[in-house]
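Kindly inspect both lines:
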Amino acid sequence: MTIELRPVTDENFVEWRKAVRHGFGMQVHPDDIARLRNDRAEIDRLIAAVDTSSERIVATGGADSYSLTLPGGATVPMAGVAYMTTSVTHRRQGAFSGMMAQIHDDARERGDIISGLWASQSHLYGRFDYGLAINSCDWEIDPGFGAFSHSPLSADDESDAHVYFVDADEAAAILPGIYEQMHLQTAGSVDRNTGRWRYELFDEERVRGGASPLFFAICEEAGEQTGYVAYRMRRLGDTDMGTLEVSEQVSVTDTAHAAIWKFLMSFDLVGKITATNRPADDPLWWMLSDPRRLIRKSHDSLWVRLLDIPAALEARTYNADGRLKIGLVSKTQPEVAGTYVLEIDDSQASVKKTTDKPDVIMTPADLATIYLGGIAPGPLVEAGRIDTISTGSLAKLHAMFSTDSAPWCAHYF
């Protein structure tokens, strides 16, 4: 038996998509295949691993094209790795590793300097030099305990910032503009093109899981639309204290954030509010009179690999000037091993290789972990993942890579 990597074409796309869904234990609706092909998938970035003895697709992979916002506001091209599956009948035969190598090679040829993914298995991608760069939280709260003790809303703000409902067609026209503002000001965020918005807002009954259609509300301040929320209701009947499920909440001002969450806490006949993928440093916790009532479950979200280490390091800005020699060791990428001199002047970086002794030693995965500023290097030192060689190197590393707010990737892919 031989496994051969082949491109995905219009001729084998349906089989490929069925193999993707089968790998995640799911069936696929024919309309969803067309929707993926039309609104999301870039067919020239997809891979099929074929068992040549049966000519069946036994593993799948690929990437979507994104723009990733970095600390400081610059955006860079990123390969969003997705669709990764291997049939249980063909595990440990090299298909997965081969697809990952091809995805990374293709991404470099396209000019991507970073690749990112949401990991279905958290133990899997470290061996491909991906580092966990962003954590986020899932929330649950009884809105009866949703009173604020502190808020950026004042009496004047409340008269000016108001939240109102819009229908699905209005939401499709309004939400992308607000999201784009958030994307450009939030490290770790990725863009959404027109097709992906159609894909995200698709709302036929079969995708609702028994909940209501999506509801949409917009926050407006002084004539500017500054935030939105999309949510579903899950109720058993008219008298049931149901669950309000926040699908996505985005705001570009503190006032909009507070106004939307005050709005959500005000519903009658809601016994529980849930929200997924909230920022690790979301201020709602600090606004609540009884913050213990906000149940927060932390989990990994975006994992990152630096495809071009000098270019990636030079693309972001830093919170402290200085000079640091970073030693990288990698069995996966021996070509990137060595010591890199990172010089920061007025927040801007220049990077070059050196034969000098490093100040710190780590893997490319650990460099990727601290790259967006969401994970401080101190715990990685304590865990034995980063070695500090020269005196003061940890303090310097922390000062350079720290950011004023945690990164957040609102878009799951």
